[in-house]
Amino acid sequence: MKLNKLITKKGIVFLMIFSILVFVGDKINFSRLIGAENQFFTLFQFFGPVAGAFLGPVVGVLSVLIAEVGSKISTGASFNFLTVLRLLPMLFAAWYFGTKKDKLSFLVPVAAIILFVMHPVGRQVWYFSLFWTIPMIVKLLPKKYGEITFLKSLGATFTAHAVGGAMWNYIVPMTPAAWILLIPVVIFERLVFASGITLSYLGLNTLLDKLDAKTKSEYVNVDRNRVLFRQKA
Question: 54-78: per-residue pLDDT in tens?
Fold first, then answer.
């Protein structure tokens, strides 16, 4: 999708809605990141990737970046190395959610797994990186399964986890025991995040469909097969 999609009235409306959600979501902590002080997963994890579906992967990634940076600036957050790196996982998740079958969606988790097991600590708990095969498996499924919103959401949130986990292994000291203890936490958190992404997508998709109906103009990519409470003709 071309960049001018974002600077139309349609794209700006979505970006405003999305930016407000990011601004609010970034203020509400969900769970603490193990191994770092004052670093949290926020409610942003529950809807961040969906921009890729509405604006396409390229412009969706750009909108996520704009919203994330704008939110950090508005809250006076310091742009240290760790903060900047934490922007990356959601960008790749938005790309994943906005594409169907593409090489990058496979290469990102593959690279994350390789980087993880190359690390001396990661090598001892190599099985932790098996989480990151989930995005690849979802993309390999037949279309009728791979396009299920929850499975796409699961693939997107584990793509973010793959990018974040591979980086975390190199910048934050962690023991093999700590990674093992994270396994049940990851299962719980990612299932919750995938559920949140699913509900966020369906909710935004329905809202934008209602806007289309009122304005007689298509705002962004709305999937009318996934509109909630849609009345049959």
Answer: 877 887 788 788 877 877 777 676 6
